[in-house]
Every structure is written in C-alpha cells, then in structure tokens.
Amino acid sequence: MSPVRSEPAEIVTEMSGVNPRKCMRCGKCSATCPSFSKIDIPPHRFVMMVENGEIEALLSSQLLWKCLSCFACVERCPRGVEPSKLVEAVRLLQIRGQGKNYRTPDDVPQFVEADEEIPQQLITSTLRKYSK
User: Fold this and answer.
1) Residue 1 lies in a domain
2) Residue 107 and residue 57 share a domain
3) Is 12 a member of any domain?
4) Cα–Cα distance between 71 and 90 in angstroms, integer?
C-alpha cells in the first residue's frame, strides 16, 4: 500500500522527480533564464519555495506560464536540481486542480490576447504537453 500524499509539496516533488533540497541557491539557473525579466519568482527561489512547501503562492506565479521549458536552468545547475521540472509539476497541479489536463488550439487566443509578449515557444510547448 502506498502512502497517502497529503502535502502539495510532496505531490510536486513526486510528479517532477526532483529533490529541491539539493539546491544550494547559487542562482545560476536564474542567471541563465531567458524569461528572467518577465517573471515574478526567479527559478532558484521557485525551488526554495517548493522545498519550504509554499505551493499555494507558486500556483499564482507568472513563472508557471512564462517558463519556456527550454531547460537552460537544468543545463546550468551544478547540482542537477532541474527547476523547469518543478515548474512543470506545479503547472500540472494547477491545471488538474481546475479539472482540466489538456489544452486545445481554441485555448491559444485567450493567452495571446492576455499578453502579446508571450513567446511562441511557450504556446507551442503548452499545446504539445497538454493536447495528449
């Protein structure tokens, strides 16, 4: 029998397969992030917030939708923490909490209208990940 997952942070770490405790807060992930100027929580702080169980605050973060999933943060991390996988897990947690686990091409205009500076890579990535 598997243990019941009650803490959102436990759910996020299990979904992502990432151990946020490995982060040493060097900031290399944030320094290399191409979306850094557009986000409210830098990747290294995002990892720290997951570790501290501050998932509710992360659910409303701009980083969830402005992360390009380019894995630049993963490449720069000297400890192999993989912040983008944590972002992806929190993003999925929010979507599943809304009773949805997919996106359709019809969903794209609402995101583009809300923010004209949204990167095309993000839109494509979202459709690829959530249209299955």
Assistant:
1) no
2) no
3) yes
4) 16
